[in-house]
Amino acid sequence: MLRIFICPKCYNFRIVSRNPDAICFHCGAKLHKSDLDYVEFIDMNEQERMKYKENFIKRMKMFQNEVDSILVEQEVNKLG
């Protein structure tokens, strides 16, 4: 089964058939499995792929902001 992965650092897509621990050929980062299946990805045009990539970037940034906020709160609680 072909799976679609996306890089959390450089946001490139990669189609992988067997390796669940795939790495990015561009930057070497461990890839995230996307929620796209192969047929859906192939049927997407370039604009739809870019939109998916932009939404992925937004989700990653929101997640990172939440993690950073929690870490800062924990540090404040340790000091106070």
Keywords:
single chain; 80 residues; alpha+beta; 3-stranded antiparallel β-sheet; 2 helices; elongated; DNA-directed RNA polymerase subunit M
What is the count of structural domains?
A: 1
Helicity, in percent? 40-55%
State the assembly state of the protein chains: single chain
- From the alpha carbons, calculate the radius of gyration and give it in angstroms: 16 Å
* H/I helix tally: 2
Short description:
With 80 residues, this protein is α+β, with helices and mostly antiparallel strands. The chain has one domain (3-79). The protein contains two helices and three strands; from the N terminus they run E-E-E-H-H.
Helix-strand blueprint:
Layout: E1 3-6, E2 13-16, E3 32-37, H1 38-43, H2 46-79
Antiparallel strand pairs: 1-2, 1-3
Walk me through the structure.
It is a single chain. The protein has one domain (3-79). 50% of the residues lie in helices and 18% in strands. The protein contains two helices and three strands. It has a three-stranded antiparallel sheet with strand order 2-1-3. It is elongated and about 55 Å long. The model has no long low-confidence stretch (mean pLDDT 91).
